[in-house]
Specification:
It contains 18 helices and 14 strands. The chain is α/β, with parallel strands linked by helices. It folds into two domains: 230 residues, Rossmann fold; 185 residues, Glycogen Phosphorylase B (Rossmann fold, 3-Layer(aba) Sandwich), CATH 3.40.50. Strand 8, helix 11 and strand 9 form a beta-alpha-beta unit. Helix 3 runs parallel beside helix 4 and helix 11 packs parallel to helix 16. It is globular, with a radius of gyration of 22 Å. It starts with a helix and ends with a helix. The model has no long low-confidence stretch (mean pLDDT 92).
């Protein structure tokens, strides 16, 4: 596909976005930040570096990079960080408050990522005037990439992951993505690097340690007296966390919840939906299962034993793991690729996961072989594993120490990204 053909396709892509926007306005997940997404409220300030972090997980990665990033000796470094979701924005705002408060020469501004209409992205890029754009994980937006290319802004795609299914979708128009390819893609595994190389070309791709390991290094068991959730649980109660549960596995997880509460009636179960808009669905599912539930947002004192707490508050899963005696991590009973099961490990809890965790293959199969996580074949065996862990618990500090040793051999992702950012800025 020639550059001229790419230029011809972009106006069609732009029209598609403009036609879709009246419908997108009714999407409840896009209402937050609508004026920023459409640039109706103006533009963010000029920035040297524009970092795009799609959602909550990527926003945490951006936070790690910002912590390691250093401003030049004689000038401030202005960083625009954007996201597509409310959860991502809440995390970026916390990151900005931390970084800006250090007076270390960095000035961080959070903003919602505009819709990818090329006309919007052209306006945004013209006003921000970044010297470098950084994409975290896999955010390959043609409008954004074309705007950067048009204004000679190099793009660094870092912590890159790509599934075979995603690669197949991009290969429907391979010439487009080869033409708009980032200047450099840093993938988290050789398998991911191979897929990016198929799309962008081998000379544009390298590997790096996954920043998610960096994020875990400071985590560890938290004394109950220091845990912000301590008042929600009676001290001797068995507390179990079901973390990051996805829509496609809700029926199976509800069956697990029912089996757990029948087997250990005094348990308190903390249920964390992966997406907050599923909270109402969980109310219905738990009613149908005959289980008592309470919304976390309505809980001010200790939960009654035998209660399922539906966690409708962001940012509390890690301290919840810190109080848990057992944990199941979702996204793994259905073929969805899994969710982050390093978090309970570092808190001293052996996580139980289902058989589908290919998106976290970068963690390494050794984590299962070493007994730091348990892989169940289905929801029934996952329940059995949870009950076994409750019956025969392992010392929390033992698990955490072994987990930190495992992670310690795999650090350096954030520093790698910062090194490349510095090199790009030096060459601009």
């Amino acid at each position: 596909m020639s550059a001229s053909l790419v230029r011809a396709l972009l106006p069609v892509y732009d029209l598609g976005w403009k036609a879709a926007m009246p419908l997108l306005r009714f999407n409840h997940r896009l209402k937050q930040g609508w004026n920023q997404r459409t640039l109706k409220s103006g533009y963010p300030a000029h920035a040297d570096v524009w970092v795009q972090a799609a959602s909550g997980g990527e926003a945490f990665l951006a936070w790690e990079v910002l912590r390691k990033l250093k401003a030049p000796a004689k000038a401030p470094l202005r960083v625009l960080v954007t996201t597509n979701t409310l959860q991502g924005m809440e995390i970026l705002e916390r990151a900005a408050a931390e970084i800006n408060g250090k007076r270390n020469g960095l000035a961080v501004q959070p903003w919602y990522f505009p819709f990818d209409a090329p006309s919007l992205m052209d306006d945004m890029t013209a006003h921000v005037r970044p010297r470098l754009a950084v994409i975290l994980e896999t955010e390959i937006w043609p409008g954004f990439l074309s705007a950067c290319k048009k204004r000679h802004v190099p793009v660094l795609l870092a912590n890159g992951r790509m599934t075979p299914k995603s690669l197949g979708g991009y290969l429907a128009v391979p010439g487009l993505f080869r033409e708009l390819a980032p200047a450099l893609t840093l993938a988290v595994s050789e398998a991911d690097a191979s897929r990016f190389a198929t799309l962008f070309g081998r000379n544009r791709v390298a590997t790096m340690p996954n920043i998610k390991f960096d994020r875990m290094v400071s985590a560890g068991p938290m004394a109950r007296k220091d845990n912000p959730l301590r008042d929600l649980l009676p001290p001797e109660t068995d507390f179990v966390v079901f973390g990051s549960v996805r829509k496609e596995e809700e029926e199976e997880v509800a069956a697990m919840a029912r089996g757990l509460m029948r087997s250990v009636p005094g348990t308190v179960l903390g249920l964390f939906p992966r997406h907050m808009h599923r909270v109402d669905s969980w109310k219905t599912l738990l009613d149908g299962a005959g289980l008592n539930w309470k919304l976390r947002s309505e809980l001010s004192g200790p939960a009654t034993p035998g209660t399922v707490i539906i966690w409708d508050v962001f940012g509390e899963m890690l301290p919840a793991y810190g109080l848990a005696k057992a944990a199941f991590v979702g996204g793994s009973l259905a073929p969805l690729g899994g969710q982050n099961f390093l978090e309970p490990m570092t808190c001293g809890v052996i996580p139980v996961i289902g058989p589908h965790w290919k998106n976290f293959a970068w963690v390494g199969r050794e984590v299962i072989d070493q007994g730091l996580a348990v892989e169940a074949r289905d929801h029934e065996s996952a329940l059995s594993e949870l009950l076994e862990i409750l019956k025969n618990p392992t010392q929390r500090t033992t698990i955490s120490t072994r987990a930190r040793a495992y992670i310690g051999d795999r650090l350096g992702g954030a520093e790698t990204v910062c090194k490349h950012i510095a090199q790009f800025l030096d060459n601009v």
